[in-house]
Structures are given as C-alpha cells and as structure tokens.
Amino acid sequence: MEHVLHLTLQQHELLVLQLLRPGQVRAISGAHWLTINGEDICLRAGEQAQLPAGKLLLEGNGRLDLQDLAALAPQGGALQLGLISVRNEQQEVSCN
User: Fold this and answer.
1) Distance (Å, whole) CA 5 – CA 20
2) What whole-number distance in Å separates Cα of residue 10 and Cα of residue 38?
3) Is the dihedral of CA 17, 61, 40, 76 positive or negative?
4) Is 43 left (phi over 0), alpha (psi -120 to 50) or beta?
5) Residue spans per domain, the chain
6) How far apart are CA 35 and CA 39, in angstroms?
7) What residues contact 89, with CB distance under 8 A and at least 6 apart?
8) Which of 14, 35, 47, 69 could make an SS bond with 43 (beta carbons 3.0 to 4.6 A apart)?
9) pLDDT digits over 34-72, tens only?
C-alpha cells in the first residue's frame, strides 16, 4: 500500500513537520521553499527531492505530495510524521 500525504499550501502559510523517517517530496503545482536539518530546497511543479528524517519547514503556494520512503519497500509501513505546527505569516521567502 502506498502512503502519500497530499498537502496544499496557501500563500503565507508555514507548515512544520517532524519526519520520523526519510521521505520524498514532489511539487505537484506552484513553487515551494523547504528546509530540513538546516538545508534549503526550492521546488517548482514537477520537481522532487529526497528528505532525511528531521524537522521539515514548508512554505510556498500550491500542492505537494509527501511520501515515506519506507512505504516504497515491499514491507513498508504507514507514513510516520509528527505534526508540530501550521502558521499563516505575512513574510514571503523567495525561491530563486
């Protein structure tokens, strides 16, 4: 069974997740800024990135799919996330 979390971020929203296991994120639409364990990643529609376990900050406008890499294996389990917070702020981060 495939475990995917479908996320839709609105402008000025900041989502903070704790990834308990490595994962993969794919930008379905829009542009997004991510940071995990101090590393910044910018994704536009159609791009994807592998993510290590750790604290993940997401900001942008559009849709993202987050998949647990362990779920890709034949013995994969459920998507393991620890939700920390969702905020709406008036600060914009450029994704150049």
Assistant:
1) 14
2) 23
3) positive
4) beta
5) 4-42+57-86
6) 5
7) 12, 13, 14
8) 47
9) 999 989 999 999 999 999 988 899 999 999 998 876 554
- Which residues fall within 8 angstroms of residue 41, CB to CB, at 6 or more apart? 33, 34, 35, 49
Question: Taking a C-beta distance cutoff of 8 angstroms, is the pair 1, 79 a contact?
Answer: no
- Tokens 């529609």 sit at which residue? 45
The amino acid at 73: A
Check pLDDT > 70 for residue 78.
Answer: no
User: What would the two tokens of residue 45 be?
Assistant: 């529609």
The DSSP letter of residue 10 is P
Q: Which of 42, 19, 39, 36 is nearest to 93 (CA)?
A: 42
Whole-model pTM: value is: 0.72
